[in-house]
Amino acid sequence: MDAKKKLVIVDDDLRSVSEIKEFLETKGYEVFHVSDGFKALESIKKIMPDLILLDIIMPGVDGFTIAKQIRYDEQAKNIPIIVSSAQEGMKELFAIEGMRDYLVKPVDKENLLETIQKKLGQ
Question: Which of 4, 27, 32, 73 lies 20 to 30 Å from 46, alpha-carbon distance?
Fold first, then answer.
């Protein structure tokens, strides 16, 4: 049996996170949650996930700043990122940074699963 793929969700919306986390765990993923943008990079470097699901609008440090930190970190820079946000207008900004996987909230779970599988080559 292959080891479970590890996913980190960086999002402060606890209700939607628990729903998505539960869904992805039933699909065989090991899911971690970070609700604090300040701790996101540190947690990601400790966990070294196979993929990151990143919210944009969060208190403290926003998702765009976190994404840039990840991209400039030697250990974490190659981890695929899927951005999820209620702000559809930010899509182009993330595409400029090379992050083309952008899901608008509320996230359709089947679409999310499909996007994750595509990013992880499953």
Answer: 27
